[in-house]
Amino acid sequence: MADWRVGRPQGPLSLFGATIAIVVVAADQIAKLVVETRLPVGEPIDLLPILALYRVHNTGIAFSFLAGSGAALIALTLVVSAIVIGFWVRTHDGGRIAAAGFALILGGAIGNLIDRLRFGYVIDYLLLHVGGWTLFVFNLADAALSLGPALLLLVYLFPAKAG
Questions:
Q1: DSSP 8-class letter at 158
Q2: Residue closest to 146 by CA, chosen among 120, 112, 115
Q3: pLDDT value at position 77?
Q4: Which residues, 6 or more positions from 49, have their beta carbon under 8 angstroms from its beta carbon?
């Protein structure tokens, strides 16, 4: 069986990479549209004992860090996205798993960037909590922004042996 960690990752303009990034952006924006039109702000709807739907408008990044930074966060997102694309184009290892990791990061960044440009904030709607303790509120783009680096860590910390 072929190991998806072997070989040069397909680039950002490959069908594989572009499809993942586009699917992440589309799914993220569709979910946010549904949340904005159907979920009241600040009213939790329990899904699981540790997960609820809970709409908030986040002007910052993770854990509301840099809240209210506006244009600086837009610029930071563009710079980080350019750096990710640069690494993706230049890397020679990791195969499809690395390509998926880079695409998830790019798709997540673009999904949240669209919100910042349209609204001045990011729409978050998934509340992770333990009892009354809120851990964080996030969205699909944030999940992609977490899964992407995890895939890159997996493929580069535990590389497959070629041949």
A1: S
A2: 112
A3: 82
A4: none
Give DSSP secondary structure letters for 45-103.
EEEETTEEEEEEEESSSGGGTTTT-THHHHHHHHHHHHHHHHHHHH--S-HHHHHHHHH
Enter the pTM of the model: 0.85
**What digits encode the pLDDT tens for the residues 117-138?**
999 999 999 999 998 888 889 9
Tens-digit pLDDT profile for residues 33-68: 999 999 998 899 999 999 999 999 988 666 555 555
State the Cα torsion 33-31-89-79 to the nearest 10°. Answer: 50
What positions carry a catalytic annotation?
Answer: 124, 142
Please give the single-letter amino acid code of residue 39: L
> Between the CA atoms of 84, 70, 40 and 104, what dihedral angle is there, to the nearest 10 degrees?
0
The reported pLDDT for the residue numbered 66 is 55
